[in-house]
Design brief:
about 290 residues, 2 domains, seven-stranded mixed sheet, globular, Rossmann fold, alpha/beta
Amino acid sequence: MSKDQNRDERVISHFGGEWKAFNYLDAGQLEELREQFTAYIHALPDEVKERSEMVVGDFGAGSGRWAHFLLEYAKELWLVEPGVESFALLEERFVENKRIHILNETVSQNSVPEESLDLAVSLGVLHHVPDTLRGIQDTYRKLKPGGYFLCYLYYALEDKPNYYRMIWRISNRLRFMISKLPYLPRRLVCELIALFVYLPLARISKLLKKIGIDPHNVPLHHYEGMTFYVMRNDAFDRFGTSLEQRFTQAQITEMVRAAEFELSTLHFSEKEPYWTFAVRKPLLSSAM
C-alpha cells in the first residue's frame, strides 16, 4: 500500500469515528445546522436554490447531516461515503427513502453515473484528501453539462492579520500531534479544546457583537451563534484528522480552471465559512 493510500485510510477511519460520535440522528440537532447549511448554499445562484427536482450528489456525505437538507432540492440523491461507520449511519437514516442511493465508495472511484447530476456538493471534504484537484476533476465528470458544483474548502487565511495566522500555525502543529494519538485520548483532547478554546472564544465574539464591536478577527468567531455540540464536532474534525490542506481564492480558481469548469460562473461566497464557492460545468463539452 502506498503512502497516500495509508494516509487516506487513516483519514477515512478518523471521520468514521467522528460521525459515529456526532451522528446528528436527532431531529433537533439537525435543525440547529440549518443556518450553517443556508450559509453554504449562499454561493449558488438563486435559480438553482429555487429548484426542487434536481439529481444531486453529496460527495463525502458523512452521517448525512447535509443530505438531510439537500433532499429539499432533490428528486434523486446520491450519497458517496467511504467510511464504514459513516456508511452504516447513512443506511440507518435513509434506508426507507427510495429517492436516495447510498454508496460506500470514494469521491474518485464511485458508481454515480457520469453526466447525471444537476448539482454536485462537497462540503468540507476535499481539503482532507491528498489530491484536491483530482477530487474536483472527478466530480466534474459526474455533472450534466450546465450542472453546478458547490464546494467548501478550508481557506488559507489570506485576509487575516499576522497574529491570526501565527495562532493558526501553532494550532496546526498541535493538530499534527493530536491526530497521532489513539482514538480515546484524541477524542478527550478535542473535547477539552472545544470546552476551553472554542466555547470561550465563541462567547467572547457573541459579547463583542452584542456591544457593537466587529469580532471578525477573533479566532473562531463564526461559532458565536452555534451550539456546543457543533463546536465539539468541529474541534474533533479540525484537530483529530492527520491531513488538512488550505487554499487561497487564487489557488481554488486555478483548480477550477484546470478542471475545465466555466470560469466566468465561479462565485465565492462573501459569507463565512470561507472558501465556499459554486461553479458551473459548461453547457457544451470542450471536446465537442
